[in-house]
Amino acid sequence: MSVAAAVAIIGVALVSAATMTGAVTAAGAPVDQTPERVALVCAGIVLALIVWWLGTRPLVRADATAIEIRHITGDYTLPWSAVTRIRVPRGELWANLELDNGDVVGLSAVQSIDGTPAVTAVTALRALHAAARQPSSHR
């Protein structure tokens, strides 16, 4: 939905810029509207990016079997068995998942600057991860 809205906003900005009527000076000479057209298209692009970002806000959801991560660049669903560690490196902006293949996936929804809510989220994720990795006789 947000991608469609962003494309529509850019389309409206482009059509508006292309169909701007030519202004004239008091003497009747045409006025160059290139700066106004460029500004209109740039404003449309900025607005479209804002709409797109709002529609794809970062998210982390987890349950006993997997963790779902939504970033502005895409969505991931990873089984806990693929996660080796959850960490918040000192000085980093957000928490990270270290995966068994050596990759690191950032959890931009869990930001260090959030303080206590971030600590609570990491603690809960670590508990789910630990529970999922423990061998169980009834699994």
UniProtKB/TrEMBL annotation:
Keyword check for rRNA processing: no
Organism this protein belongs to: Planosporangium flavigriseum
Alphabetized UniProt keyword annotations: Membrane, Signal, Transmembrane, Transmembrane helix
Signal sequence coordinates: 1-26
Domain Low molecular weight protein antigen 6 PH: 57-126
Organism lineage string: Bacteria, Bacillati, Actinomycetota, Actinomycetes, Micromonosporales
Name of the protein in its database record: Low molecular weight protein antigen 6 PH domain-containing protein
InterPro entries registered for this protein in UniProt: CFP-6_PH
Ranges annotated as spanning the membrane: 38-55
